[in-house]
Amino acid sequence: MTYQAKTLTQSDFWADTTDLKTLRHKLLDLFCQLAYQEGDFVLSSGQPSSYYINGKQVTLHPQGALAIGRILFSLLPPDTQAVAGLTLGADPIVSAVSVVSAYEHRPIPALIIRKEAKGHGTKAYIEGPNLPEGAKVVVLEDVVTTGQSAMKAVERLRAANYTVNRVISLVDRQQGGAEFYQSVGLEFQTVFTIEEIQERYKQL
């Protein structure tokens, strides 16, 4: 489905007022309509796949971004001091959660983790507000396969003396990521499993 600029009706405005249970159902449909594709693909891990999830089709969608921000904000532990993720996939996600947190009167800053250190200025790996040493940061991800991408963010944050114990993903492809996080002592949550997306995709 291609995103169309159009004259909007009241039914198009669902992400800001819908209860979280209904919001999750609507976000699932958006993933099925915009992000999920079947065919022959090669993943960033190098693995071949019969399907692909382009999460940015949803995370950069106006209603999708707001829905993601609200849902992920609701999953954060009460002591969360920041959300962070590896560029580029996590950039719109951490931004959405941070904006929602301000509206919820519980402001949580966002951090973006570069894949390579900036080549000028501070030459930093981490972009965003400077936090106190030991600050509790939750890493966010769009799609988890093996778990290695978000782990890079975890390692960079820990090297900067932040505390990271949890990863939350929008989609778990169920190809070892959850088991990997468990093996390294990280708590892991996902909004959707690939089974759930594929089942709903067939219904639609």
Automatic annotation (TrEMBL):
- GO terms classed as biological process: 'de novo' UMP biosynthetic process; pyrimidine nucleobase biosynthetic process
Residues forming coiled coils: none
Quote the pathway field: Pyrimidine metabolism; UMP biosynthesis via de novo pathway; UMP from orotate: step 1/2
Record keywords: Glycosyltransferase, Magnesium, Pyrimidine biosynthesis, Transferase
What residues bind 5-phospho-alpha-D-ribose 1-diphosphate, as annotated? R114, K115, K118, H120, E141, D142, V143, V144, T145, T146, G147, Q148, S149
**Pfam families, A to Z:** Pribosyltran (PF00156)
Q: Where does orotate bind?
A: T145, R173
**Catalytic class of the enzyme:** transferase
Molecular function terms in GO for this entry?
A: magnesium ion binding; orotate phosphoribosyltransferase activity
What is the reaction catalyzed?
orotidine 5'-phosphate + diphosphate = orotate + 5-phospho-alpha-D-ribose 1-diphosphate
Under the heading NCBIfam families, the entry gives:
pyrE (TIGR00336)
The record's listing under HAMAP family reads: PyrE
Q: Report the protein's function.
A: Catalyzes the transfer of a ribosyl phosphate group from 5-phosphoribose 1-diphosphate to orotate, leading to the formation of orotidine monophosphate (OMP).
Record's subunit section: Homodimer.
Protein name as it appears in the record: Orotate phosphoribosyltransferase
This protein's species is Chlorogloeopsis fritschii PCC 6912
